[in-house]
Amino acid sequence: MAARAPPGDAEAAALDELSQNFTYWVPSPANGSLSAAWYLKNQIHLFGVLLAILGNLVISISLNIQKYSHLRLAHQENPKPYFKSAPWWGGVVLMAAGEAGNFVAYGFAPITLIAPLGCMSVTGSALISVMFLKENLRASDILGMTLAFAGIYLLVNFAPNITQVISARTIQYYFVGWRFLVYVILEIIIFCILLYFHKRRGMKHIVILVTLVSLLASLTVISVKAVAGMITFSVTDKMQLTYPIFYIMFIIMIASCVFQVKFLNQATKLYNTTMVVPVNHIFFTTSAIIAGIIFYQEFLGAAFLTVLIYIFGCFLSFLGVVLVTRNRERDHLPQSYIDFGNIPGKQMLDKIQPDANGLSYGTMPDGSGSTKSPSGEKKEM
Question: What cellular component GO annotations does this protein have (predicted)?
Fold first, then answer.
């Protein structure tokens, strides 16, 4: 039997509990990759993976439902606000359900396994839009989905095989550890520098905005796993919600999510979605993996080849997301007419169709059928 830590030695007691919270799987010659023994040993991880995949698929469905709602309202003569549309609210409910699935998944599987599965929402959204919104299926979409699925296979197979029970004492030990303190100090310094260039110097580059999001995302995934893990441990074993660290992590989770949304909204206003989505996915996933490695030590004792294949799986999923989102908006450009119907104070009876072969520019808003020449003189058509 292992010797007990001396009474009063809180650090030794925490280390003893921490060592009991880790379970490593050392494969034997009889236990091959994805064998029956592998499934038996990784049931908890696979449950988390299943929740994350289903959650991301539900998110992709919700995005397409919301897109369908906007498209339907755009074709109505007198469209009502989108927040009064039942399909839009249905998409919001599904979005919440998908995010809840992702939240619970962090309580059962490592961050380094759950975070990269976010590519499922991107590839799933592209596939659903082809099936239900009749969008074009491009060769790059097929290649991107294939690479993303291959990357997911490698991630699930070669992610850290470590089962860690998240208790309040474990989080407290990690929270005051030197690794996390150094990591947080570096993050704060980088965040302040980028925020200075963004606010004071007016730099709006997408890399700056998405980096700000990813720095906050690292704190989000750490706190999400802590909160989800302590809730799971409270349900299955011993109540953990009475510890102050639970509420500290909960506040960090909410605050980091709010500021993430703020900077991400700024990025989507300045840049196309096809640019923001892949860059944000790559930065977010990389930041989450680093956070899982530093805070939860999820690659502790992992073999070099395992880490290398895992990184290659991440690369394949990143490449798949880039191919699926590349030039997607260009395939759905609006028709080349100018619609003055929504300009305050203007009543438009028809749409102006540019004439490339003449000096006239179509029907004017007064409906008189006259046009103006470039010199400003009014001419009858």
Answer: membrane
